[in-house]
Each structure stands twice: as structure tokens, then as C-alpha cells.
């Protein structure tokens, strides 16, 4: 059945002028980083439900991530969060990752869980608190060196709750000053990925509220600083694919944190709510990967595709596998867009033909393609089912309840 379905798929795509071999190659080399915190217990501000089998320490989190990689074949790196993943010996953590066939990905500092940060961290009016925050960021640069990580991923929770509470412009200056010190401490091969979010935990203003502010900051810091787009961090109705294209064109798109967004930053399974948005983001990326400007092409090659999710009611490992599969599905569909057809319609200013050239790829069934790719990569056809039936799924039950939580 799969063979027949795939043969038909390949025939249809070739007839449309799609280079199927190239599509397959691109899908096989497309990797997604999973977050250590997505394997631990997590919750909402109302309750954290404890699950059986949750990893008890950073080493076990890596083991769960290795299981996701074993079943999907495309998740070779894991982002860590400090101090959630604090260990005595980071070289040992690195070796543990390597023994599992993984590497440590982005290092995420935590500037939001200490009492001192209640009124801000790097934007706090108190210089001693800013010093503490910068020292933590510098510690994360060291941890990145020790673990072989090439990315420092920054989300700053700073903001205010009431008008007049603090001076916006002073805080803007402290932010730049703090990050400039950290930037200078980074080795040449390290990137600083700067995230933004328009609200939460602060509700009146956030110091790094949107992609324009992150872009401006990254410009001022230098070429090793880029913007990180977390798909959950925009006000309703934001055209995320547009800002993605803009940032790529400016060579300032560093990476993504994928998750879904319904009402706010839900950190739930990517693609569960708005798969078309995800597809349109990939359309922009794929289109820019064929750009005439080599610097734009290099920017696209270096994009870090990361998941940023905390699953609070669903089992963690299958939720992560589902997320990876959802991303792969939308990427596969976007690879089926005939870019020449889109360009021709744009040149002719044929609005309906252009929209059709994009949408019809979204409507295609990429199931047979993904099945064949998994077969060629020696992976299970259905990673969700394979996990449910795996010895690993039963083995982790022995961990009991009360695992690590963020
Ligand atoms: C909080 O909004 C957040 O979800 C940010 O997206 C960070 O990337 C993540 O937590 C981890 O600190
Ligand atoms: Mn994020
Ligand atoms: Mn978030």
C-alpha cells in the first residue's frame, strides 16, 4: 500500500516539476532541537501535575531526548536551561550526551526565578541586581564552552505592571549595556539568540516586547547576535511569516522556538492549532534558501530550529515526538511549493494563481513521502506507535512520580 501510494505521489510531484530527490534530501537533513525542560514535570500557575516516569535529573532528561532522536532520526541536540539543568561537571553532561548520540544545543539562562529579579534582572534599577544577572549570563557562556554548545539563547522576563513604575529608556540602556558585556565574552563561534515577548510575566510593558526591539538590539551588539522567533510570543493576528522573511533578509534571523499559540504563549504542541502558519513560515525560509545573495542563504543554513514546550497534561516523550512530526509534516508540504510557479504568478501580478500555487502544496498528503523517508533512514514508520510499544516506555515507569520539574 505504502509503495503504491508513494509511487503515485512521486509521479504526481514530478509532473508538477518538483525535484523529489532534493525534497527527500532536505527532509533527511532537517534537524530539530528538543528542550530539556519539555521532558520534566511542568504546569500552569494553577497546578503542576506529577507524572509517572518523568526524568529525575539532567542526565535522564538527555536519555529521554535520545529516545525521541532514536525514533524520529532528526533530533540530535538538546537545549539546556540553567539552573534547571545545573550539574557539578558539565564535561560529564557533554560526554553523557555524546554517548547517547546527542550533543548539547542552546544554553538558556534563567533570569526570572530568583527573588531579586522581581522588578527585573538586566533592566533592574539596582546595579547589584544587574551585576548578578550579568554574572549568571557569563556563567552560561562558560557552560556553553564546556558543553560544546554554540548558542546562548536569551529570554528576558523583565517588564513592569503599572504605568510610571519604571523608566523605559533607562531600562533600555541597562539592557544594552548588560548584553554588550556578555557579547564581548562570547567566543567567535558562539551566537547570542535574542527572544522577545510582548507580555507575561509583566502585564504593562516588557523590556524586549517585539521582534523590532530584538532586531535593534542584535544590530547594535554585532554579527554574532541574532533574533530568536518564538512562535507563541506575538499578539493575536501578527503576521509571523512576514517578520521571519524580513529578519532573514537582514541576516538577523537566528532561530525558532516552536510551540502553538491559541490565546497566549501556551507552550503546547506545535502545529496543533495553526499548522498553516507553520507551513507559511517554512515557505519563506525555503524561498530565501534560493536567494541570489549568499549571505541570505548562509543565514537560512544556520537557522536553529528548536522546540520550546512544556507539556502539562500530556505524557512528555510522545508529546515531543508528536511535535517533531508536526514540524516535519509542514516542512515537507512547504518543500512541495513550486517556487517558479509562485514567481511566475507574482510577476504576472496574478493574485489568485499565486495564492493557489502556495495553498495547494499545503493541501497535499505527504504521508507516503514521510513513510518512505523513515524507511530509508532505518526508522519506524510510525514513531508514536513505536514509542508506545517500546521497552523504553515501560522501563521509565520505574522512575515513579516526583521527577524534575522546572
Ligand atoms: C517563557 O515565555 C518561555 O516560554 C520563553 O519562551 C523561553 O524561551 C522559555 O520560557 C524558556 O526560558
Ligand atoms: Mn521561547
Ligand atoms: Mn514562551
UniProtKB/TrEMBL annotation:
Gene3D superfamilies in the cross-refs: Divalent-metal-dependent TIM barrel enzymes (3.20.20.150)
Molecular function GO labels: L-rhamnose isomerase activity; metal ion binding
One BP annotation, GO: rhamnose catabolic process
Swiss-Prot/TrEMBL keywords: Isomerase, Manganese, Metal-binding
Pfam name, any one: AP_endonuc_2
Domain Xylose isomerase-like TIM barrel residue range list: 88-266
InterPro entries named among the record's database cross-references: L-rhamnose_isomerase, Rhamnose_iso-rel, Xyl_isomerase-like_sf, Xyl_isomerase-like_TIM-brl
EC number in record: 5.3.1.-, 5.3.1.14
Keyword Metal-binding: yes
PANTHER family in the cross-refs: L-RHAMNOSE ISOMERASE (PTHR30268)
NCBIfam families named among the record's database cross-references: RhaI_grampos
Protein name per Swiss-Prot or TrEMBL: L-rhamnose isomerase/sugar isomerase
Organism of origin: Brevibacillus fulvus
